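pasting for ref
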Amino acid sequence: MIHILLFADLQENLGKDSLEYKCDSITIRELKVQLKTAYGLSKIDQVMTAINEEYATEDDIVRSGDTVAFIPPVSGG
């Protein structure tokens, strides 16, 4: 099970700040496609990603027990 944290627009679109994804291993790219399809998170392609609090690339692999955070760009001043 992969624990997924969502912030800002993604959290608002889904209506909650986290979810559990049942999978042994998956790349960030594949996970984004799955979440986009399953939950309609169209802006997920534009976010930064962290695995276990370390920034990750699209090709990094997430394994069961990991925590993934999808962090949208922040603006303001």
